[in-house]
Write a structure and sequence with these properties.
It is a single chain. This protein has 2 domains: 64 residues, 2,3-Dihydroxybiphenyl 1,2-Dioxygenase, domain 1, CATH 3.10.180; 64 residues, 2,3-Dihydroxybiphenyl 1,2-Dioxygenase, domain 1 (Roll). A 4-stranded mixed sheet has the order 1-4-3-2, with helices on one face. A 4-stranded mixed sheet has the order 5-8-7-6, covered by helices on one side. The chain is globular and about 50 Å long. The protein has 2 helices and 8 strands; from the N terminus they run E-H-E-E-E-E-H-E-E-E. A hairpin with a 4-residue loop joins strand 2 and strand 3. Keywords: Dioxygenase, Metal-binding, Oxidoreductase. One of its GO terms (molecular function) is metal ion binding. This is Glyoxalase/bleomycin resistance protein/dioxygenase. InterPro entries: Fosfomycin_Res_Enzymes, Glyas_Bleomycin-R_OHBP_Dase, Glyas_Fos-R_dOase_dom, VOC_core, YwkD-like_dom.
Length: 128
């Protein structure tokens, strides 16, 4: 088997409208398709970034909580590459999103930081 690329990341959110606004208005994702599935009482929102389909955002009634900090068991975080970490942090500040202290990758010497989405899921920005 040969995997060609990452197809998408699926995220279940606790507040659909708040998460939809965060991923579109703050992070700049584009809505490809939005459907409401009555039988599941669930929205499914397909989101793209720079023309590439990346995230499925779901809502379900009363989803269980899950530990989500980068060191918790399971999926650690999602990471986005940015050209200028300082510029990214300044943009996030304008949107009232707090970034953690900038760190340096000990192997690449590249800068990175983390933010949290509306459900406290960790999102990394890595200077490429």
């Amino acid at each position: 088997m040969k995997i060609d690329k990452l197809h998408h990341i699926a995220i279940i959110c606790s507040d659909y409208n708040r998460s939809k606004k965060f991923y579109t208005d703050i992070l700049g994702f584009t809505i490809d398709k939005e459907i409401y599935r009555e039988e599941r009482q669930s929205y499914k929102l397909d989101l793209s970034l720079n023309g590439e389909y990346l995230i499925e955002l779901f809502s379900f009634p009363d989803p269980p909580s899950r530990p989500s900090r980068p060191e918790a068991n399971g999926l650690r975080h999602i990471a986005f590459g940015v050209k200028d970490i300082k510029e990214a942090i300044e943009y996030l500040k304008l949107k009232e999103v707090v970034a953690e202290e900038v760190r340096i990758d000990e192997f690449t010497n590249k800068k990175f930081t983390f933010i949290a989405d509306p459900d406290n899921l960790p999102i990394e920005f890595y200077e490429v």
